[in-house]
Amino acid sequence: MSLKRFTKFVIFAVFVCWTGFFCQFLNAAVLTYYRYYIVQKGDSLWEIGRQYNVTVTEIKKKNNLRTSKIYPGQKLIIPVKVKGVYHTVKKHETLWRICKTYKVSMEEVISLNRLSDPDHIVAGQRIFIPGATQVKEVKIPEEIISGGKKAPVMPEEEKEVIKFSPSQKETLKEKGILIWPVDQKVKPQEYRKSEFGIDIIAPEGTTIVAPARGKVYYSGLLRNYGWTIIIEHQEIGIYTCYMYNMVNLVEKGDVVEQGEPIAKVGKSGAGEAMLHFEVRRAKDGKPVDPLDFLSSESKLN
């Protein structure tokens, strides 16, 4: 390689590296949000500032304090600064996949970005990712990019009616092969039968797990039911449904194993912390008694 060509190569390499660094720099950001702090006995503005990585001057300015004197029970507004990057949403990307890529809490991202409808983000939208140091590429399954079969979208006027794709399976496999969908480390208080399934009463935030291996058929918001997940279990010939979730941890097309976390228990429209669980036949979508399929060994007392 001649000296001239080598020089051009070095200049080009430096330009590429500098461009990449500059692009990352443009996406780097510091987001400021405000939270309340109740002063405890022995607290000082300096200690509070150190805890939240803000200066005493910033706290005093935000709370109109002339001196540094504070007292127990006093409510202070703390300007919390969070470092991160802005991720520009691309086609086919969802908030769940973005958060999974960056390994951050979806709830935190929703809160920091004040997203009113996390299930619907659009290409070109900028999402702040806390703790990230560089922008990452979100990997999208090939079947989604190529326009594969989409999960059913419920009609606007009857979203509470769940519709399922017909299956060629005419009979259900052996019963009693599902584990209970609520994490057994947290024993629910009770369960009760409802019109189409059972309501499992459990503390808000309790982990919901897949009762058997399957593929996520639907993950999103349903009118009257909130965050909902539907899993198709082809080998068994059933669908399992999970409603009133606080947050969904899986997305349409994901394959889940038995016992794998899929969601967190949320609250019903009446404000009760619970999981509404249904089992439906794959051939026609009709509901069947979940208790017939749940293992008696793990059945709640």
Automatic annotation (TrEMBL):
SMART domains: LysM. Coiled coil: none annotated. One of its GO terms (molecular function) is metalloendopeptidase activity. Residues 35-78, 85-129 form the LysM domain. PANTHER family: MUREIN HYDROLASE ACTIVATOR ENVC, PEPTIDASE-RELATED. This is LysM peptidoglycan-binding domain-containing protein. It comes from Aerophobetes bacterium. The lineage of its organism: Bacteria, Candidatus Aerophobota.
